[in-house]
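Input.
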Amino acid sequence: MTKLRRLRAASLGPMIAVVLASHPAVAQDAASEQRKAEARDLAQQGDAAFKIGRCDRAVPLWKEANSKFPAPTILFRVARCQALLGHVVDATGTLEALLALPQEPDAPQAFQEAKAQAMAELPAVRARIAFLTVDVDTGGVSTVPQVRIDDRSVGLRKQPVPVDPGRHVVRISAGDASWERTIVMQEGGQQTVRVSVGVHYAPAPSRTQRTVGYVIGGLGLASMTVGAIFGVSAANTSRELEDVCGTDRKQCPADRQGDIDSLKTKAVVTDLTLGAGAALFAAGAIVVLTEPTPHSEAPRLVLFPVGLGAAVQGAF
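Output.
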């Protein structure tokens, strides 16, 4: 008798599988019940985490439960925890998703109550959202700046971005230039960050060697001018002495000895200043002509936070 029962039991498994395979609705119902059971278990784990004050653990469990079996009651729990954590943007989205679920005529009472509660709490949660506007004036620069709030790219739109109350980091980059600022947002508050983009052109590099060359050359010209003056004066004195002393200057009166000495001095000064001046002028020309080509700094993009501090530069 026992052996017969075992045989019957063993034969029931394949028979049940055949019945389920031949009746898709039966198999589908079984799978649905399985998902419900898994969702119920995950939801209970989330409830346990919530009871000990761990919304951060509860929300992922509830979301996984809802992915297995969508239910307004689970979404409502998620939204409430998100609001408690200060994530009012996500909480608002969750409540709106809950209210968007189709209303089944035979929905459980708990589902209907969850929708009613969501509709009642949505305005208060939505009112806590803050709005941050990032206004970037490109100033005609072709480079397109990148704008981020925390880890989210918001582009160049000048429309308010919904954010949670609290601290947020605004980052703006254009080429190699970047700017960053932490903004504290109050519940329901609004703030605008304004930043301008411009181009900074570096001043022309100094030409020190050329300046030194010009100075040396100028000294040379001055020396040659002095030499020329002494040379003219020596020529005039020489002509005077020739008229008085003769060409060989052997018949000079004793009182003209001073003129002869002066002529010699002027001749020496003329030779020295003309020679030194020519050398200095040549040296100045060499210094000027051998100066290396100066390196000009490329224009740089500059981010000017309006009223918030110093500019930040970056190369194109």
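The CA atoms of residues 86 and 164 lie 7 Å apart.
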